[in-house]
Amino acid sequence: MTIQLNAAFDGGNIRVVAIEGAGDDWRCDLEIVHDHQSDFFQWFYFRAAGLAGKRVTFRILNAGRSAYPFGWPGYRTRASTDLDAWRQIDTRYDGGVLSFDWTGQGDLAWFAYFAPYTMEMHARLIARIAARPGVAHRELGTTLDGQAIDYFRIGTGAKQVWLYARQHPGESMAEWWMDGALEWLTGPAAATLLSAATVHVVPNMNPDGTRRGHLRTNAAGVNLNREWHAPSAERSPEVLCVLAEMDRTGVDFAIDVHGDEAIAANFIAGFEGIPSWTDEHGATFYEFGRRLAAHTPDFQTELGYDRSAPGKANLSMSTNQLAERFGAVSVTLEMPFKDHDANADSEFGWSGARSRALGVACLEVLTEMIGQV
Predict the structure, then answer these.
(1) Which of 277, 268, 281, 279 is nearest to 362 (CA)?
(2) Domain boundary among 95, 112, 129
(3) Residues facing residue 57 across a β-bridge
(4) Which of 132, 172, 240, 320 suits a disulfide with 231, CB 3.0-4.6 Å?
(5) Which of 72, 92, 112 is the last residue of a domain?
């Protein structure tokens, strides 16, 4: 019996080039599909059936032409047989081809760039959190595919805190982070923060890209994190409706949650280079990073992105736009597709569960600092 591959499901992405083999030994040659109307691609997620008793090599032939090929060395594919536990498996990158092997006792296995957080999972998150006391849910708008932009307001305090994630849909760790953050925000530990702040949450900024299996863009092939200077209903209705609500509430502190392909660590990036930058404004951002590193072994401050030169910040990116527009302490949080090497996990690497825990840690540190923002 041959092997069957399928990615025609929520968040799936793969194209079959060839399946060859007989008896015990098989090879599946694959390609990752581009984001619609875009050159971006790197996210993959597919199911393989008919694996029992076979030794199978999977080869992603176009990995070297992906958006961030420098992220493949040292990367390990996530695999699951139950869609709950996603373990790392040995992965090779050579000559532009990403490959990994599987010897299956069962017929079925799923393989992904990172543990998926699908739109079905998102719907269950929204239903669970919306039913809790003290939570107000609203649909801020709809996407080009007609999906809802879900929003929560929690708390009654004067400080306006915004948490938003998954502008880049292939960065599924961002919604795992939101899952943990929302659980904490709707529990008793959040009382101190919620008396000082009103917390506004958009768990998924890019539902269309999530469902379509995109890496970085929405249904129009637009990178939402380059739209914050001038969003439009035609290109970026997701940003348009969220920014309109931010204009209504104001923003004192914000976290934009992402994933990074290459750096094997959790880190934050700030808003250096905005026209209105002051050292006093930036000091609170740096203090947040220092406190978070002291609070959890799953964060560090040594590795990260280069800072923008004075006056050179890209104001189309949300962190810079919010810092300039509102004077907010604005944070981009990056989590790895690899592992947080300073506190590594050889079995799971960086994972959904650890992303959830980091969401809690970030809010615990924010609670300590809320009077400073």
Answers:
(1) 268
(2) 112
(3) 27, 101
(4) 240
(5) 112
Residues 6+ apart with CB under 8 A from 262: 68, 70, 71
State the average pLDDT over residues 152-164: 98
Task: Answer yes or no: do 106 and 155 share one domain.
Answer: no
Beta-bridge partner residues of 56? 26, 102
pLDDT at 34 over 80: yes
Supply the pTM of this predicted model.
0.98
For range 297-303, the mean pLDDT: 98
- Look at the chain and report how many structural domains it folds into: 2
Kindly state whether residues 331 and 236 are assigned to the same domain.
Answer: yes
- Tens of pLDDT, residues 116-132: 999 999 999 999 999 99
Q: Is 245 a residue of the active site?
A: no
Catalytic residue among 334, 347, 364, 368: 334
Same domain as 131, residue 77: no
Rounded-to-integer distance, Cα 102 and Cα 185, Å: 40
Let me know: does 261 contact 215? Beta carbons within 8 Å: no
Q: Give residues with Cβ within 8 angstroms of 345, minimum separation 6.
A: 339, 351, 354
Domain that holds residue 93: 4-112
Cα 42 off chain centre by? 13
- The CATH number of residue 305's host domain is 3.40.630.10
Distance CA 211, CA 122 (A): 10
